[in-house]
Design a protein that fits this description.
46% of the residues lie in helices and 11% in strands. It is an alpha/beta fold and 321 residues long. The protein has a single domain, classed as HUPs (Rossmann fold). The structure holds adenosine monophosphate, FE2/S2 (inorganic) cluster (FES) and zinc ion.
Amino acid sequence: MDLRRHNAAFCGEHLSRFCRDQVTRAIEDFDMIAPGDRVLVAVSGGKDSLALWHILGELGIEADGFSIGLGIGGYSEASTECTRRFAAEHGLHLLECDLRERFGTDVPTAAAAAKRVPCSACGLSKRHLFDSAAVEGGYDVVATGHNLDDEAAVLFGNVLHWHTEYLARQAPVLPAAHGFPRKVKPLVRLAERETAAYCIVNGIDYQVEECPMSAGNRHLGYKEALADLELRSPGSKASFYFGYLREAADRFRSDGSAGEPDGPVPCGRCGAPCSGEICSFCRLLDRAGAAPLAVDGPPVAVPVRLGRSDQPIAPHPGASA
Ligand code: AMP
Ligand code: FES
Ligand code: ZN
């Protein structure tokens, strides 16, 4: 495989090593994971998050997986299936939250009820559930599979519209704040073409289809525009994104916090930090007529038993049950 931005070409073995090295470098450069941290990887069943879970294992970083059943028809079922199969094959511990089972709703229904575009309701739900699952399980860090293409496209959109409040959050690490875990993106040094190739050479079976609800969204348009630039000028994406982090990101971060738009007032329902009485996720559930989240309610994430995957990482003493 040729990597024009690195002016290099790799065989399968060296590509795998390259990917591991890039993840190691991202983790070290941005202090993403410290020894002894309990790590929860958010796994969609796509190439990025499965490659991430695999690479962390190869690097000796133990991590449990967390998968959300979004209820987007066959797409979600097939994605969850890829995640479960990977966990079972590698003897990894997987936690799951199915929106239908846990709340009686799903992304398409909640988005329609709240008159939101599906990707926005979906993103809001995922962010909230990553936090809840991590807090519940006593994890220090949530790792997601966002890659260089994702981050460069988000940056492009935020600069195009000068969303300065979002620019503040555009770091590969968001420190823990308000009792919530650190969020890290260890794949920021890898392009999606590279994570796909990593999966192929390592025999990882992933969900190849794109989410059917994302067709035509603006983010995909930004990705295409940047892909075009990258083709003409290899390395543009990396120089745009890492240049921003180096030159400007600090100017947008005023208080060194995770930059969450919500303030530190606990949500009246679920206890998450929010700026009003009820957090955005609880409001979304309300509008969808779904089962509410409550501080002392049933857990968000439940472990699934999968063949060999019956060895969870021991919780910290301080972790809630
Ligand atoms: P996306 O928002 O679909 O671009 O996904 C970004 C990252 O969020 C993925 O790389 C995963 O780490 C995580 N993620 C996306 N969908 C899910 C899901 N259904 N369950 C758990 N994690 C997810
Ligand atoms: Fe969230 Fe498609 S994965 S709307
Ligand atoms: Zn809430």
